[in-house]
Input
Amino acid sequence: MLGMSRTVRNGKTVFFEYLRIVEEDDGWIGLIASPAGQETARFRMSDSGPQHVTFENPDHDFPQVIGYRLAADGHLLGRITGTVDGETRTVDFPMSRIACQGVAEDE
Output
């Protein structure tokens, strides 16, 4: 599975990253994140269910945990968590489905 995220401020992209969820031949399942200007990081799937998935890499600087949860209303919540300078930090990324620009919603 492939994904891409970007952060936009004042109409300009200020950050982006490419994401892949993969299963390798040895059975390793994980998320591979390639953020702009940074090293690619690998996070092993540590938990999953019908409405959620969690990936972890305790050796990564930040975040160490990446999770996604599907809410009952259809919205997706992404959450990153980790420790920076001995302090736990969490950042939520609420997402909702929208039609792609130039594509009719029923296509």
Q: What stands out?
A: The first strand starts at residue 2 and ends at 9.
